[in-house]
Structures are given as structure tokens and as C-alpha cells.
Design brief:
The complex is a heterodimer of chains A (583) and B (573).
Chain A (H helix, E strand, L loop, with lengths): L1 H9 L1 H34 L3 H50 L2 H6 L2 H43 L1 H8 L1 H39 L1 H6 L3 H53 L5 H42 L21 E8 L11 E8 L4 E5 L6 H6 L9 E6 L2 E2 L5 H7 E4 L10 H5 L9 H13 L3 H6 L17 H15 L3 E5 L7 H16 L2 E5 L3 H4 L4 E6 L2 E6 L1 H7 L2 H17 L1
Parallel strand pairs in A: 3-8, 3-9, 6-7, 7-8
Antiparallel strand pairs in A: 1-2, 1-4, 4-5, 9-10
Helix pairs in contact in A: 2-3, 2-5, 2-10, 3-5, 5-6, 5-10, 6-9, 7-9, 7-10, 9-10, 14-16
Chain B lengths: L4 H33 L6 H48 L2 H6 L2 H21 L1 H21 L1 H7 L3 H38 L1 H6 L3 H53 L5 H19 L1 H22 L20 E9 L5 E10 L4 E5 L6 H8 L7 E6 L2 E2 L5 H7 E4 L8 E2 H6 L7 H10 L3 H7 L5 E2 L8 H14 L4 E5 L7 H15 L3 E5 L3 H6 L2 E6 L2 E6 L1 H7 L2 H23 L1
Parallel strand pairs in B: 3-10, 3-11, 6-9, 9-10
Antiparallel strand pairs in B: 1-2, 1-4, 4-5, 7-8, 11-12
Helix pairs in contact in B: 1-2, 1-5, 1-10, 2-4, 4-5, 4-11, 5-6, 5-10, 6-9, 7-9, 7-11, 9-10, 15-17, 17-18
The chains are: A alpha/beta (583), B alpha/beta (573).
Amino acid sequence: MSRLWGYLAHYRARYLGGILCLIGATTLTMAVPWLYKRAVDQITAGAGMAALLRTLGLIAGIAAVQGVVRTFSRFVIFNVGRDIEYDLRNDLFAHLERLPLAFYQQRQTGDLMSRLVNDVSAVRMLLGPGILNFINTPVYYVYGLAIMLSIDARLTLAALAIYPVALGVVKRTSALLMERSVRVQEGLADLSTRVQENLSGMHVVKSYAAEEQEIAAFGRVNARFQEQSLRLARVRGFIGPVMNVVGGVGALVVLWYGGRQVVAGRLSIGDLVAFIGYLHLLSWPTMALGWMLSVLQRGRAALGRLDELFAVEPAITSPPGATGIMPLRGEVAFRGVDFRYPGLAGGSPVLAGVDLTIAAGSTVAIVGRTGAGKSALVELVPRLFDAEAGRVLLDGHDVRTLPLGWLRRHVGLVPQEPFLFSRSLRENVAFALDGGADGRAAGRVEWAVGMAGLASDLADMPAGLETLVGERGVTLSGGQKQRATLARVLAAAPRVLLLDDALSSVDAATEREILERLRGFFRERTTVLVAHRITTVKEADLIVVLDEGRVVEVGDHETLLARGGTYAELFREQALEVELEAI
Amino acid sequence: MRPYRGVFWTALLLSPINQTFALVQPYLLKVGIDRYIRRGDAGGLRGLGLVFAAAIVGELVSSYGQQYLTMVVAQRSLGDLRGALFAHLQRLPMRFFDTTPVGKLVSRVTTDVDVLNEMFAAGAMTIVLDGLKLAGIVGFMLWINWRLALVSLALLPAMAVGVDYFRRAARRTYREIRERVARINGYLQEAISGIKVIALSAREDAAFVEFRRLNADHRDANHLSNKLEATLFSLVESVSTVSIALMLWQGGRLRARGLVEIGTVVAFIQYIQQFFVPIRDFSAKYAVVQSSMTAAERIFALLDVPAAPVPARPRVPDAVRGAIAFEGVWFAYRDAEWVLRDVSFRIAPGERVAIVGATGSGKTTLVKLLGRLYDVQRGRILVDGVDVREWDPVALRRRIAVVLQDVFLFSGPVADNIHLGRTDIPPAAVAAAARHVNADGFIRRLGGYEAQVRERGSNLSGGQRQLLAFARALAHDPAILVLDEATSSVDPETEWLVQDALTKLLAGRTALVIAHRLSTIEGADRILVVHKGELREQGTHRELLARGGIYARLYRMQYAPAARATARAAGEG
């Protein structure tokens, strides 16, 4: 809750203004039934048109002013709700961006989305319509009771006699409503899970011809959900009619009891009109009570979930006051590095005691079997993760002492799984460039696309570089995605270039061609190639062989081959693969 | 909705009844004032009070009945729609699921149908009923006193223009809001899945700026809709009050000429108030109707996706033998990117055949085609002498059991994962199958056949999942068993159980195994070597090794190192 006060404080002037207007508008509204009373009494008494017109003029004037003030109050309060929703969502997004990759590996996208979308909305409901009714209801009651009591205390008590009962019913119904809504939500979740699993396991369903059984099983969950929904409907459908009854009973009491008072000369017909009017005005806020309770509950639960997210500390951040290295040579070194993927505590270490120096300007290849720790090694350099023990050094500086943004601008990692955003190919390639896809960057983008071997693919795309790719655009093949991802990093021309098996989906010939073209580019910077194909690594200055998280062999191609160890074994297997490819 | 026509009409018929009960109350007020109170007849009020009370009860019962019955129709129809959607999904071809994200389909069946429910609860139905209500009120007023009624409704044309203006403005704004919400959601989804790229490119600030812009667009559209709604709400309130003032003015004039009684004036205050309530709530309902129209469009678009083709006269060969033949099969997932090229082979009943090939050679596709998860583009596949496209699909798939490498388990009881809902597999058969493939040990430890398997089998080990899949296959007692052997190693003890189970499972059936284990290829009657989508070699292990072709290389590349590693591990252990 405390987080909320900060946001509210920021908008306090407008918010208070809106609330004052709201109270003003409600005050004016509450004057109207009293004026109806005066008009009806004037008509009954035949007091003449002049007096009546004065009253009616007052009513029309109040209606006009009230309309303006109420419009203003409603949109000011609702807009502040939207403003706070906007701020909250921005802050949450900015916070999420600072959280390390490890956080995302342990969370489901759907859950994060739901917090950013649904929970923030629930808070907005609390601050907009929630607050509006929260303020409005007591104001209505205070005015309504005061005026009615001043006319006739006993009639007031009689007319409101049903209210405690009504409030009890509302309270009980709200509780039932909440409970049954939760059931329906759960039912819907069951339904989702059922469909989700069925669709994910569709190959099993089809292979075992289990469609009919699945339909039957879904039918059962569906029927249960229907029952739950109907149970909810039984309660939900109750509220409206009950509130109508409250209004009706009020009118009945006024007619029956108030009527006797009129006959006895203690009240006027106009008084009856006023009573009916006030009872009418009070019925809505009473009905809204239950709804308000649920908005309040939902808003608080949502705030709790948001607080939980905000409480996650960004584990990988820029140290304060850090400066980059000028000029950067690009030497990368690992000193006694141990590493385990976070969240997999107790798992075997991914890297254990890695000591390795990659000279500035050299091209180094990392090879090893699946799971040897090759990806982890390169992921530690731009600090996607931090080492558990030991240090990763860039030109002798621990990477944790360097500004994070600076580090990542100068260390370019092409990850194993390519990822493209749903925008044009140009924007994807220019993604890491300042100024996006503007004129200055255009040359860089075209150069990178050419270097990554995408130029010929462009010809087949409907709009060349402007072709929309990703989920809403053209679907690229795995190899095309990898090359576009490579182009994105090439365009940024980082001092240290890390390729994490970045061309695994590209056929061997194309890969050779691309690497051949990049040779000069590599020579101008430090390049680390995590590679699968031995042919790719043969010409590296240094080859590092990893096995189960340890550096087991270091040397050039000839030396390692002569040693007859892991590298030589890998080489023999791959030579066969090359042969096979050629058959 | 058709089966619930009766209920639907009852609900609709209750509506005028309910309205009559509601509209008669102000009239009773008028009668009370004019006939009893004004004449000092307090006693007469008692009888009138009883009638009034009856009207209240009548309104309560009929309006609750109407709302409830409407919901019954809505829930039943939407339940049916949901069931139909689900059943339709079961009939769509596998290709459809390869290209459509699961999440999208899930929200069609759940959220979108739910939005339609809102339409019933608060949208289209109520707008129609509200229209009836307005007509009812106007009719009642005209009937009671037309002179007073006409003046009361004098502002109505102006109001109609205002509401219509609002409707136009709102349509645009609501559409904008929906689009902007979708854009925010899309952006968030992508930013979260692409967070690694954003971090690696150090584009957090740029991404934030973009998000803030989308967020601001969304906020602005909502500000506009708030303004519109607040204006409409207050306008309706004010017009309602001014209409009452106009009515009172006319009431004063008519009363002076003796053309109206005071009770009528009082009743008209109520009628005018009742009249404007539905108009005030119009904006909220209108938004619901709009979004439900979009949901309905999406649902019907899904229902329009053609189902997988079914043979006109499905055939079920009587003789269960388990013979397989591929005749000149060509297949591509995406047009002209051939995954299989002109593949032909025959497998005799009871034969055990291993398929061998490098990654991406097309082995897995072969087994998918056999159960007709996809249709071939050229050539044909015969099972027991009949083209799979002519088979009754259910009968075909019951004759073939497929165990894929990545075992898919459903959350729910262990037993359900074995019989997959087939009622003709009794619990005893489930237990027998599990026992036979050595799965009963861990099932007992888990808590028996009713013990819950968590989503995707996350509470089971890889080996246990394998055994459960074997039990599933065995319980379905297929003539043909298709197996994609797991590559991932399991602990030695489970490994032994899996090997033993596999031997039992394969006994007496035609078996097609994508082999990853040396023992499997050595034990096969014949080996098919698939390379770049073509069947390049076939024969026994010895023959193929001696030939020194693709198989010999594959063997040295894939199986020999694994065998060495196993030997090394055994030596260490």
C-alpha cells in the first residue's frame, strides 16, 4: 500500500480538485429532490406560475452547473487513475529491464504479463472508480439522512428500516459473489490447462486416436465450469432485483405511512416526493458497496503481487561511478572461474576453476561436447550472469567494476538461439545502434547484412530490408534468423566479438563463406568462436577444449591433433560428418 | 443456442411482465395520492399498499427469473460452443498446430468465449431489453396523460442526437483502446521473451522509451474515453433533471386548467428517472458489445479452419498383421522443401526394423507419416495393404502405437496417462501393462495408479517417463510399434529397466525403431539408412558395416563413441 501513496502524492493537487468537485456535484444533486418537493407543493397549492418558474429555473440551473462539475470530477478522478496506471506500468517495466537473465529463466512470461497488465489494471480500478464511490457513498448518506430526518424522523426510520436488511443481503451476496467468482476463475484455469495440455500433446492424442476420449474429458471439465458459472449467475442475478425491491419498499413505506401523515396534515405531498427522491438516490451507493469491497480486495491483492516484483533486487548492475576503459585493447581473461546457472542450486557446476587468457586481437575457438560449459563461458563476459567464484577480466579489469552499458556495447555476443523482434529486418539489424535505423546507421546495416550473407535472401523478401519479420511478419528459416542475429552484432562492431555457435543452423558451405568474408573483421578485434564444426575452428590462433566445465586442452589445431585427446576424437567424428554431408 | 430456445423465449417473455410490474409501481403511487391521500382516505391506502407489495414481489420474481434464465441460456450455449470449438480442434490436421501458437488457441476456447458471456450478461441482450423498456415507459406515460408525456419527452430528440454522437466517437475511441492494449501486450510479450537481446545490446533505455510511448498512447486514448463517458453520464443526468423541470412546468399549467392530477405529476418524476437509467448505462454496454463482436469473429474464423480430411468410405482391414509399405513417398512440411524424397520400403509383419540417419535426415518424419499425422504429397503408405488415407483414422491409429523420444504426459492420475481415457482398457489391464514394462515399482512409490502426474510429468525422472510411455503403448496393444528411442542417458539401474521393458514391448509386433542405442541396431532384423531424405542403404548391421558406406560412417560417428563412453563409464564404476 505504501508504494501507492507515493504515486497519489504526485497527483494530489488534481486528485483533491477532482474529489472536491465530486463532493460539490453530489451536494448539488442532493438539493434537487428538495426542489422537486417545493415545486410539487407549489403546484398542489396552486401558488401561481411565477413562484413555480423560479423553482424550476433553479432546478435547471443546478442541473446545468451540476452537469459541468460532475463531468469534470469524473474525468479528473478517472484520468488520475489512468495516469497512475501509466506511471506504475512504466516503473514496473523499467524495473523488469534491470533484472538479470536468471530471473527470467525462473519466471513464466505469462505470469509477468499478467502482473504488468491485469494487476496494474486492478490497481487503477481501485484508484479510479473505487475511490470515486468510496468518497461518494458517505456524502450521499450524510446529506440524504440529514434532509430526510429534518422533514420527518419517524418516516425516515420507517423508510430506512429495510436498509439494514438490504445491507446484510448485499454483504452476504458479495461474500458469495467473491467466493463463486474465485471458483469460476479456477474453473476457467482448469479449462485453460486442459486445452493447453491437449494442444501441446496433440501428437499423442492423434497417435493414440484419443480424440473422442479427450472431447469427453473436456466435456466433463466444461460441464463443471458451466455449473460453477450458473452458481455465480444465481447470485449475480440476485443483486439487481433486490436493490429494486429496496427502492420499491421505500416508496411503499412512503406511500403507506407517509400518506397517513399527509392525510393527518403533518406532511405535504411534496414531502413524499422528496422522500422518494432521496431513497432513489441512496439505493445506488448502497448497491455499489458490495462491488466496492471486491474492487478493494482485488486491488490490494494486485498491489501485493506488484510489490513482490518490485522487491526483486537487480542482481547485475553498474557499479556507481564506474568508467569504461580508454582505449580498450580487448584482452579477456578468466581467473579461477566457477559457475552454476542460478536457480539450479545443488546442480553440478557448469564451469569449474577455469583459467584462461584470450589475448587482445586474437581469434580463439572454444570446442567441446554438448553441456561442456562453452555457452556459459562466453555469457560471463557481457555479464548475462556473474561468476560464482573467481573473476572475469577485460584488459585486466574485473567486468563487475565496469559500467554495464559500456561493457555490453564493447562486448558483442551472438547467442545460440536467434531472436528477432516483430519489426522490419532493418530495425532488427540496427537494434543495437544509437539513432536506430536513420541515415547514418543505414550504411552500417547494409554492410552488416552483406557480411552476414543475407544479401541474397533479401532478394526473395517482399520488401527487402523493410520486410517485417517475426511473429507478425515473414517467417524466416532458422539459418536466416541466425544470420540476421549475427548481422545485428556485426553492425555494432564491438571490440570483443563472441559467437556462441551462432551459425549452427547454417549449412557448412555458407558458414565457411561467411567466416571467410569476416576474416579481416575478426583480425581487427578479439574474437571468440564457440563452434561445433571443427572446420570452423581449424584456423583459430588458439583452440580451447572444454569438458565438463574444465579447460582440458589448449593449443592450435596441429598441436591438439597430435596430442590425440578429446580434440582429436572430436575431429575424427566430424571428419566423418563432413564426408557424409558430401555423399 | 438452438436447444435452449424454450428457455430463451421464456426469458424474453418474462421481460415485459417484469417491466409491467416495475412500471405499475409509480402508477400505484399516483392512484394512492389522487384517490386516497388527497381525499383523506387513509383506510384505502391499506388495500393499495397490498397491491403495491404484490407488484414489488412480482418484479423481484420476474426480473430474477428473467436474468437467471438468460444466464442459463448463455452458459449452456457458450458451454456448447466451447465444446464444439474443442471438438473442432481435435479434428484439425497436425500441420495446423505446427504453425499456430498454442496460447492463441487456448484463449479462443477460454477468454474469447468468456467475452461472449459478458455480452449475454451485460451487452447485446440488455441493450435489446432496454429498448423494450424505453418503449414501455413512453407508452405508459402517453397512456396516463399524453399532454404531460409529450412535454416530458421534449428533450428526447436532442438527447438522441447526443447519444448518437457519443456512439460514433466512442466506437472510434474504443477501437483505438483495444488496438493500443493489443500493442502494449504484444510489446511486453516480445520484450520479455527478447530480454536477452535487449540486455546484450544495452538497449534498455531505448526499449523503455518505446514502451513509454505505447503506454502513453494507451493512456491518452483512455483519457479521451473517460472524457466521453463522463460527459455522457453527466449529460444524461442533467437532461433527466431538466426534463423533470419541464414536466413540472407543464404540470403546473395543466393543473391550473384541471387537466392533470398531482399524483400523475409525482408518478412522472419516477418515470422520467427510470427512462434515463438505461441511456446512462449505454456506454458501458456498448463497449462490451464491441469487444464481444471481435471475440466472436475470431471464434468463427477458427471454426472455419477446415478439418483434417476423412475418407468417404473408411476401410478397416480385418486381418491384423502389421505389414507396412512406403511406395515412392515424397513429403515436405513447407512447400517444395522436401524432407523425404521418393522413399520406398516394405516391412513384413513381426519384423523389427531400425531406422538410422544423421540429425535432420527425415527419420522422425517417416514415423509421423505412418500414423497419418500428415499426408504425403506424392506416393503412398500402406498399412496391412490399405492406403493410410483410406483407413478409418481411429482404427489405423489404434493399430499403431507411437512412443516419441520426448514423452508427453498429461497432468492427472497415472492410470489416465496409460489408458488415455479409453474405457475398454480396464484397471487390471493398466496395471498389467505397467508391471510388464517394469513401471509398477515407481508407480507404487509415487502412490499408486491414482497418484497425480504433474504438468509435463515434471515429478518423474526421464527414465520413469519412458517406462510410463511404454506402459501406455503396451496397454493399447498395437500390431505395430513405432519408437523414437531416447538419446538422453538415464541412470544405469533405470537404463536396465528400460532395456528390459523395450525387449518385452517389441516381442511379437512389427517394430519400427529410430535407433540411438547400439543394442537396438544390433538386435534389428534389418536397418534402413535414411540420408538427406532418401533411403540410401538397407540390410543387417554386419552387411552394412561391411559395405563401408553411409551406415559405416554413421556407426563410427554416432554409435562407436557412445559405446566407448559407456565402456569408459563402466570401467570407472
